[in-house]
Design goal:
Its cofactor is Zn(2+). The protein has about 325 residues and is an alpha/beta fold. The chain is about 50% helix and about 15% strand. The protein has 17 helices and eight strands. The chain is globular, with a radius of gyration of 19 Å. The mean pLDDT is about 95. The structure holds zinc ion.
Length: about 325
């Protein structure tokens, strides 16, 4: 069994594998512009974030009913469990669905039906994080949070994703203030394609507790010092960074340097169906490409639980951390 870990940066829509996309398309009478799953896999060749996002939104057309969302989450949890995931904080993009006429309640209740039995079926505890699309307006984000209010018992926090450049965090100040008033935790993508300044802005203007990606913080030494001092977690996604050309190769990924700088970094899969692997695959990838030691892999696993939103269940966090400490790498795989 792989090392126990939490996954903190995972878009549920990004777990849609070609096989499930075709199965749902057939069930829902949606025609995909690809001959078969092989042709669809061929389309998974991106040059940057925008070209990925174009395909990502196109494929969402197959997700229509609550059952579709339940199946999507079930498929992710099953794969995640096999890769050692014990806790998952899952992003979803309501605006990508409401824009297609799918009510937010269908999305949340569909995902919720899967998450309700995740522990029993897959041994995974879960949290749900509602993400706003930053290339949509601030008003649309506010309307989305308003529409989610009947379902807040299912939602732990809010996040911010999609095309980063040109959409600075401050654009969403008001909706993050409202989220804070509602008692929601706050995270945001920042410093992936956008500059280090967006990381500062996400901390100072949006009050986020974790930065998703954030690797461009390395361009600003005083920001690195602050992130290390304040123990702000960064949810890194190595395979995603290579596929979206944020770094050229895995061997050039700054993960090791970031660990050495004292940053609280975690390894995650982002959109695993599109980026070539789930979170355990990402762990294996960075281990091989960067020559990480067992101590470093254990640190990454420990970080994932320390960075997770388990303040409402510290006994569970302690149990997971004890599993990490007890894990024997040499007995595995
Ligand atoms: Zn992401």
């Amino acid at each position: 069994m792989p090392v126990p870990k939490a996954e903190l940066h995972l878009h549920i829509e990004g777990t849609l594998e070609p096989e499930l996309a075709f199965a749902l398309a057939a069930r829902n009478g949606v025609t995909l512009p690809y001959a078969d799953t092989d042709a669809l896999r061929e389309a998974y060749r991106f040059s940057d974030l925008q070209s990925f996002l174009d395909l990502y939104y196109e494929l969402m057309a197959v997700l229509r009913t609550a059952e579709d969302f339940t199946e999507l989450a079930d498929a992710y949890l099953e794969r995640a469990a096999a890769q050692g995931v014990r806790h998952a904080e899952i992003f979803f993009d309501p605006q990508a669905h409401t824009a297609r006429g799918i009510p937010i309640g269908v999305v949340i209740e569909g995902l919720g039906a899967s998450l309700d039995r995740a522990e029993e079926r897959y041994g995974i505890s879960t949290r749900l994080i509602l993400c706003f699309l930053r290339d949509e307006s601030a008003e649309s984000a506010l309307a989305t949070l308003e529409a989610a209010k009947p379902y807040l018992h299912r939602i732990t926090g809010v996040g911010l994703d999609s095309a980063e450049v040109g959409h600075p965090p401050a654009k969403f100040r008001e909706v993050y203030e409202e989220a804070a008033r509602l008692g929601l935790r706050r995270v945001a993508h920042a410093g992936e394609e956008g500059p280090a300044a967006y990381v500062r802005e996400a901390l100072d203007v949006l009050g986020v507790e974790r930065i998703d990606h954030g690797l461009r913080c390395m361009e600003d030494p005083s920001l690195v010092d602050r992130l290390a001092r304040e123990r702000v977690p960064l949810t890194l996604c190595p395979f995603s960074n290579v596929r979206l050309r944020v770094v050229d190769t895995l061997a050039e990924h700054p993960l090791r340097t970031m660990m050495s700088a004292g940053l609280l970094v975690t390894v995650n899969s982002d959109d695993p169906a599109y980026f070539g692997g789930y979170v355990g695959d990402n762990f294996d990838g960075v281990r091989d490409a960067l020559g990480l030691t067992e101590d470093q892999l254990r640190e990454l696993a420990r970080n994932s639980f320390e960075a997770s939103f388990l303040e409402d269940d510290e006994a569970r966090r302690a149990r997971y951390l004890a599993e990490v400490e007890a894990y024997r790498f040499d007995a595995a795989e």
